[in-house]
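Memo to structure team: turn this sequence into structure tokens by end of day. - J.P.
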Amino acid sequence: MRLGVGLAHNHLISEDETVSSMVRRSGAVAGVNGDFFDVGNSGIPLNIVVQDGQLLRSPTGRAALAIGKDGSARIERYKWNGSILLPAANVTYWIAGFNSGLAPDGVVVLSNVRGYGAPIPNRGVHQTVVELLPVEEPRRTLVKALTAQRALPSPGEWTRYTVKQIWQQQAYYAPFPKGVILLVGRGRAAEWFTRNITAGIPIHVKLATSPDWRSLHGAIGGGPVLVQDGRAIDDPHSPVPHERNHRNPVLAVGISRDSHTMLVVGVDGRQPLRSIGLTQPQLAAYMQRHGAYHAMAFDSGGSVTMVARLAGHSTPTVLNSPSDGQERPVANALLVFSRPGKFRQ
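Reply from structure team:
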């Protein structure tokens, strides 16, 4: 068995997709809803997304389930450390996010997986879009070029691009040409672009997190952390602190002390004749009683969905009773894959 991350319609900004649909089209045997998302608007998940070893969205510092390339799983908080480098001038500029929302006075990097692109800015907002083409060179060439310059950051995380074109106060919608990414600067960042960036110059981009995301096969955000080192905690970085002591439909994932067992729990709620749900402390206690040494929650409320492809069935079945009365389309999902007759971590 192995774990994976499903993304609604393979885009971060979309109309979202049910867990059943993601399980069905991916060939998974089971799945549960994942991160909190911009419901009713862009649909974008609100924390880190890593899928099949590729970073798709930058983190926000809240809890995430991290799935290592070695088959391990842990609960982690990822901080964002992205930046761009103008090698000719040896100048760096901080990136506010990757495939996230646009920053009023910062730089955001966008790729096709975001699914939308850069819109026309509102009146009074200065926006500059820099279109970047990748430089196809062996990594050893990049390392040599970077280390030859004085006082530059470690080269292992940098990817080389060339500025193709600069767009002022214009939209640049997805899909982009193959390999293209966009730097979108607004406010002071847009002004810095105008002063320092011209077509044809090289730019290096670093999409970095702490801890490093490159060891991951997948990552999916959520929160709050419920159990840490065997103790129930009140997570100060909870995405929904106001819900702590309210009973809701809830979903959580736990990991045993020896890291050999994962527990996935879905609890229905808001249905007095079936279940009234759990508070966050009650969910933490439940996870502890069932052997979780570390545990975190995923999106709660009407998003809570647990799906499995039952033996003898060709399509996935919803195992719980979603409080909306039907499956709610969500931004992403934790998926379980299995190959009969084989074991794969």
